[in-house]
Design goal:
InterPro entries: FAD/NAD-bd_sf (IPR036188)
Organism: Streptomyces gottesmaniae
Shape: globular
Oligomer: single chain
Structural class: alpha/beta
Largest sheet: 7 strands, mixed
Protein name: Lycopene cyclase family protein
Helix content: 25-40%
Number of domains: 3
Order of helices and strands: EHEEEEEEHEEEEEEEHEEEHHHHHH
CATH superfamily of the largest domain: FAD/NAD(P)-binding domain
Strand content: 25-35%
CATH topology of the largest domain: FAD/NAD(P)-binding domain
Length: 417
């Protein structure tokens, strides 16, 4: 049996971010032993995925970025262009493989974090801590006992909620024969695609050069689509809307992200905590996660170094979650047209303030001003409805086996079991 102060289960964005922070010993802080348990290579590991996020100035993962932009473009259903400079923010693209390589190199420089490859089977509370039982790649049993365990594995099913939508998408990494992309600008939400009944759809283009980009088709709705339907939608968007000809698809990625007002328990035992998506880091109305993970893991690391109980703080404020619940209800009920709603926000709210709102960084007076730029009566009706609407289970079970990747609001952390 191994013993440690901290065990981190899963080496996705949340697990690696926390391990990275704990590997850096603060002056005067006590030394902590950390074990990071990651699944062996194989089907338990998620595919490569893309995270996109915005932040002010430089960040700790800039060396691993695939691209960065200062301009975002939204296109209305009738083709009108809303282009915004988001200074002082920068929109950043980070591939999971590059992120993992960067963190792995930094962890290897020290001895604070010990990495294990094993499939975790159980996490159980014991006296003064918890035990993680796992099985290594050769089938041998492994047990690690720790004072604190942080579990980033995805949930097998979603908690009960009043509203649950899915953000599901499929993307192509394309290369063209000639320069066709504006490499300085992201097509953030392109509504020139057919809108599904009772949902929302848009195209999304991340140019990484004048002749290459990630092109995605995304829907907010209650159920995923057959794979062939995504390919058809992407083909139409690429050829008929973007006008691409003679392009090569060099890679693909797909994902399903829960958009729900469910309450996620951040504590599953006296010494066991959930982090990342499983700990409620995903923004309910957008799926935005990566920055919330950084806030969450920063607070955990600070609490551990100070000798406090390291229960993860809420990733999003109560006010943000309440506003998200209203928006989800308005979209799901059909009272609000999704394309018109987001077009209206981008046309009437300064881009930097809107991005701060999407990240939960606005103040009360800014949220109130933003709310007045939404369809007030439908939103109020949705808010009233939530007061008596019961919480129930999603009709479509959410499984950790579903693929994850990234898009404008799709920088999720599925974790690794």
């Amino acid at each position: 049996m191994l013993e440690a102060d901290v065990v981190i289960v899963g080496a996705g964005a949340a697990g690696l971010s926390l391990a990275h922070r704990l590997s850096r010993r603060a002056p005067g802080a006590p030394r902590m032993s950390v074990v990071l348990v990651d699944a062996p290579p194989g089907p338990l590991r998620p595919p490569s995925r893309t995270w996109c996020f915005w932040e002010k100035g430089t960040g700790p993962y800039d060396a691993a970025l695939s691209a960065a932009w200062r301009r975002l473009r939204v296109r209305t259903p009738d083709g009108r262009i809303l282009q915004r400079d988001i200074a002082p923010l920068t929109y950043k693209m980070l591939r999971s493989d590059d992120f993992e390589d960067l963190v792995a190199r930094e962890l290897a420089r020290g001895d604070a974090v010990h990495r294990l490859e094993a499939a975790v089977e159980t996490v159980d509370g014991v006296a003064d801590g918890a035990e993680v039982r796992a099985r290594s790649g050769d089938g041998s049993a492994l047990t690690v006992r720790a004072r604190w365990v942080f579990d980033s594995r995805p949930l097998g099913s979603l908690p009960a909620a009043r509203t649950t939508l899915l953000q599901h998408f499929h993307g192509w990494f394309v290369r063209t024969r000639r320069p066709v992309f504006d490499s300085d600008t992201v097509e953030f939400m392109d509504f020139r695609v057919p809108q599904p009944p009772g949902g929302l759809a848009f195209g999304y283009v991340l140019p990484t050069g004048s002749d290459r980009a990630l092109v995605e088709y995304t829907e907010f709705s209650g159920a995923v689509l057959p794979r062939a339907t995504y390919d058809t939608a992407l083909r139409r968007y690429s050829e008929d809307v973007l006008g691409l000809r003679g392009f090569e698809v060099v890679a693909t990625e797909s994902g399903v992200i829960p958009m729900t007002d469910a309450r996620f328990d951040r504590r599953s035992g006296p010494s066991v905590f959930r982090i990342g998506t499983a700990g409620g880091a995903t923004r309910p109305s957008t799926g935005y996660t990566f920055s919330a993970i950084q806030r969450q893991t920063r607070a955990i690391a600070a609490a551990l170094r100070a000798g406090r109980n390291p229960v993860p703080p809420p990733a999003h404020s109560a006010r943000s979650r309440a506003m998200d619940a209203v928006l989800l209800r308005a979209l799901d009920s059909g009272r609000v047209d999704g394309a018109a709603f987001f077009t209206r926000l981008f046309s009437r709210v300064p881009a930097e303030r809107l991005l701060r709102f999407l990240d939960g960084g606005t103040r009360l007076h800014e949220d109130l001003a933003l709310g007045l730029r939404t369809p007030v009566l439908p939103m109020l009706r949705s808010a009233v409805e939530l007061s008596w609407l019961p919480r129930g289970w999603a009709e479509q079970p959410f499984s950790a086996e579903q693929p994850f990747a990234g898009g404008p609001f799709q920088d999720r952390d599925p974790g690794r079991p």
